[in-house]
Amino acid sequence: MVDDVIPHPRRLAVRVTKDALRQIRGGHPWVFDDSIVAVPDDGEAGDLAVIFDDKRRFAAIGLYDPASPIRIKVLHQGPPLVIDEDFWRERLTAAFDLRSAFAKSAQTTGYRLVHGENDRLPGLVVDRYGDHVVIKLYTEALFPYLDAIIGLLVELLEPASITLRLGRNAASARVVREDGDLLYGELPEVVTFRENGLTFEADVRHGQKTGFFLDQRENRNLVRSRASGRRVLDVFCCTGGFSVNAAAGGATSVHSVDIAPAAIAAVARNVALNLDRPSVAACTFTSSTGDALPILLGLADKGERFDLVVVDPPAFASRQSQVEGARAAYRKLTAAAVRLIEPGGVLVQASCSSRVTARDFFDDVEDAAIAAGVALADVRTTTHEPDHPVGFAQGAYLKAMFATVRTRR
């Protein structure tokens, strides 16, 4: 029984500000430290914070995390609820049910099963790569429940393995678990999965995120649909998701750019996994290793030109104070990228910085293109995929633009 490992943590009586209470009742999953009016001084990570209103009525319950500015991660608001085996099973099952279409697909076997707060399981991410499952914890407060979560994943999914990845806050906790630990089963030397019929590897123990950036799946597929006969530049290529999709779509050449030599090596491996496709085998692959902006400027100075350029950088703004710098970086990248695109070619530019709004990002890209002497036409924007749902405003982070580059008259 999973219930045998469900902990019985201390329950902390908590009072919060009226504004915080209003937001909690509106569905917001976070309570920040400066919104707490009263809480016991000796609360520990994983204690259950029971939030009461000013009339001492139950309002919500969440995970207490004294080391995080997000002091309480709300599990439930409304009538009183017991956090037991049934709670965890029901929440996990509900998240899995939302992804039922993926579970039935042989063409796509890599997808997100649990998307943290957006699935009402704050701090918890679960990704699937074929028969292999990866748990990522973003809070120390989940460690007391980890064994229970593992047991439920084994029961509900019957995976070949479960691997643990830790976000920065969780990795600093004084616990016996470490980032990359194998929690269950056995891992092969290389974990592979399918994405829209293509094969990729996932470095589930040491790679970024849980081993692959699953959230760009359909954007990669859109690039694939537009790549036929084109020369493609993939900037911030990481492990080559866009590069391989472009080749599969019939690109004549793909040039991949990343600062990490390990990423460029991963691109080559992922290309090799798909050489059974004639379009991939026929494509010419080249690469550059280094900072993106100097490489873009250098390619332009050499007279290099492309028909489709993908610019998909990492998050530039993890704090509000970094937002203006991030927006300036997006504008510089746009200006450098459009110099490389033949008239009638396509710019694909994305942002995964949640603190930069979609409107600001799209405006910055279009303004930078105009300042560089081109216009963007046939603009199409995309956002989150079904396995990365948005459950609250701050849960929205991904936005991308597909646009045709026209010479301004």
Output the CATH homologous superfamily of the largest domain. Answer: Vaccinia Virus protein VP39
What is the CATH C level class of the largest domain, in words?
Alpha Beta
What fold name stands as the CATH topology of the largest domain?
A: Rossmann fold
Helical content band: 25-40%
* Physical arrangement of strands within the biggest beta sheet: 16-15-14-17-18-20-19
CATH architecture assignment name of the largest domain: 3-Layer(aba) Sandwich
Identify low-pLDDT runs.
none
Main sheet overview: 7 strands, mixed
Helical/strand content category: alpha/beta
Give the termini separation: 71 Å
What is the mean predicted local confidence, pLDDT?
95
Computed CA radius of gyration, to the nearest angstrom: 23 Å
Q: Tell me the count of domains.
A: 3
Number of distinct helices: 12
Q: TL;DR of this structure?
A:
The protein has helices at residues 18-25, 85-98, 100-103, 146-157, 168-171, 217-226, 241-248, 261-272, 278-282, 292-301, 323-338, 358-371; strands at residues 11-16, 30-32, 36-38, 48-52, 58-64, 70-77, 110-115, 124-129, 132-137, 161-166, 182-185, 191-195, 198-202, 231-235, 253-258, 284-289, 306-311, 341-351, 374-382, 399-407. 29% of the residues lie in helices and 30% in strands. The model has no long low-confidence stretch (mean pLDDT 95).
Q: Could you explain how this protein is built, in words?
A:
The chain has helices spanning 18-25, 85-98, 100-103, 146-157, 168-171, 217-226, 241-248, 261-272, 278-282, 292-301, 323-338, 358-371, and strands spanning 11-16, 30-32, 36-38, 48-52, 58-64, 70-77, 110-115, 124-129, 132-137, 161-166, 182-185, 191-195, 198-202, 231-235, 253-258, 284-289, 306-311, 341-351, 374-382, 399-407. The termini are far apart. α2 crosses α4, α6 runs parallel beside α7 (241-248) and α11 (323-338) packs across α12 (358-371). It is globular. By secondary structure, the chain is α/β, with parallel strands linked by helices. Strands 16-15-14-17-18-20-19 form a seven-stranded mixed β-sheet, sandwiched between helices. It has a six-stranded mixed β-sheet with strand order 2-6-5-4-1-3. Strands 7-8-9-10-11 form a five-stranded mixed β-sheet. It has three domains: 2-77, Archaeosine Trna-guanine Transglycosylase, Chain: A, domain 4 (Roll), CATH 2.30.130.10; 85-192, Transcription Regulator spoIIAA (2-Layer Sandwich); 213-407, Rossmann fold (3-Layer(aba) Sandwich). The protein contains twelve helices and 20 strands.
